[in-house]
Amino acid sequence: MQFRERVIGCFKALATGDAIGKQTETLSRAEVEWWYPGGITGFHGRPGEVIPRYAGKRYEWRIGETTDDTEQTLAVTRALLGEGRVSHKAIGQELLECRKSLHPGVSLWSFVQSGDPARMASEGDGCGAAMRTAPVGVFYPSSRLDDLVRGAYECAIPTHGGPMAICAAAAVAGAVSAALEGRPGAEVLMVALQASQKAESLRPSAEAAAVTRSIAGIHSDLAGRQRLVAGELANQYFPDKPQNIVPLAIGLALVTRSARETALLAANIGGDADSVACIGGAIAGALCPETVNEEWFEVVERINQDELVDLATSLAALRRCE
């Protein structure tokens, strides 16, 4: 399979996962079952209409609409295309234009309020960096691990300077890069772990190693199960903290080897469902692009109209292999 096709699969899967997962974002597992008694099986309702639980809220998210996860991923992509390199200032300039989920209390809010594209955050350990770092994995091959990890840092630092955020971003970039090369799942995991471990030195702390340990531990547990059940995973690894969100996404992607199944499991678990489905989708879509649900993507493309495939195709041509 051609590299370009894998990159397109990666981008399609991250966007569809994002939109599928948005339907249950922030819900507990019990609330997911209340709103969707039969479970999430795709998009529920007419695409473009308001998701029922968001009716009357500050922002009425629509069925099929992507979130800040996809918006910021495409912002990073535009920065890479414009600069031909990974620069935190160029990424910051693009992030200043992002408006989804922009409100007090989120890391992007402080960044946008500063108005400084070169700003470097000193804290922030959420998954906001990891959710947008797939383009770094497209840009650098896994053989250039030092550059890849530095690129993940540059991608993270405008809004997230915490050690767990930087390690998680590096792990995702590494996993995406190795998956795009069609490497076996075990090798994709190895690269993710190596990237996370290398990133620990960028912000040395006791918390930094927690991401690497959690990625290895959750993957080992998921790989040993006969079947992945949303309720069981929610009880053990509910994605409401950094130690679970990215490790769960990587584990789901590598164990299911399916962008579709990763998105559905994430959505039925709840919590930070859109980020788990987006991050996991990026990895699974790169590894197995044939598992992208094209009907879902048609909905996402129609609702969002963000030139995602064109951007992915252009980015694929910038792969830095030298």
How is the secondary structure organized here?
Elements: H1 3-22, H2 29-35, H3 68-83, H4 88-95, H5 107-114, H6 134-139, H7 145-156, H8 163-180, H9 185-199, H10 208-223, H11 230-237, H12 242-256, H13 259-269, H14 273-287, H15 294-304, H16 308-316
Helix pairs in contact: 1-13, 1-14, 1-15, 1-16, 3-4, 3-16, 4-7, 7-8, 7-9, 8-9, 8-10, 8-12, 8-14, 9-10, 10-12, 11-13, 12-13, 12-14, 13-14
Structure in a nutshell:
With 322 residues, this protein is mostly helical.
What do we call the CATH homologous superfamily?
ADP-ribosylation/Crystallin J1
Oligomeric grouping of the chains: single chain
Helical amount: 55-70%
| Overall 3D shape | globular
What characterizes the major β-sheet?
none
Strand percent estimate: under 5%
CATH class: Mainly Alpha
Rg (CA only): 17 Å
Structure in words:
- By secondary structure, this protein is mainly alpha-helical.
- The chain has a single domain, classed as ADP-ribosylglycohydrolase fold (Orthogonal Bundle).
- It is built from 16 helices and no strands.
- It has helices spanning 3-22, 29-35, 68-83, 88-95, 107-114, 134-139, 145-156, 163-180, 185-199, 208-223, 230-237, 242-256, 259-269, 273-287, 294-304, 308-316.
- The mean pLDDT is 96.
